[in-house]
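hi! just following up on the protien thing from before. the input was this:
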Amino acid sequence: MSARSKARKRALDILYQSDIRGDDLGVTLAAEAKRAALEPAREASWLYAREIIDGVIDNRDDIDEQITTFAKDWSLARMPAVDRAILRLGVWEIVYNDAVPAAVAIDEAVELAKEFSTDGSSAFVHGVLGRVARLG
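and the predicted 3d structure came back as:
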């Protein structure tokens, strides 16, 4: 597994944890940063995970608006927390990270949905992120 794939999993963990606990994302990120400092072997994945989380924090309103716009008939509150986290990560990569091709961001998000969410979530994530990439 590539360092970026590992970083996406770390970012997903942070986004999900913050959402489920109702904690501020910045607080959750700071706690994870303390833990990451004790794991120098995982530094490569940590750096990109932190970039993702910082990007989501900086652009949260726009990211959530994109998700709401392109998730036909689904509000953010109605989505499973893991799907919200995956979509936030994916939208950030598609819209704000020019170093990652949209197709790669979508594929990685779909794989996360297959691994961590419900059977129908991967198709849902693919549909939303595909519309963001085409129309967003």
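The CA atoms of residues 7 and 45 lie 4 Å apart.
The mean pLDDT is 95.
cheers
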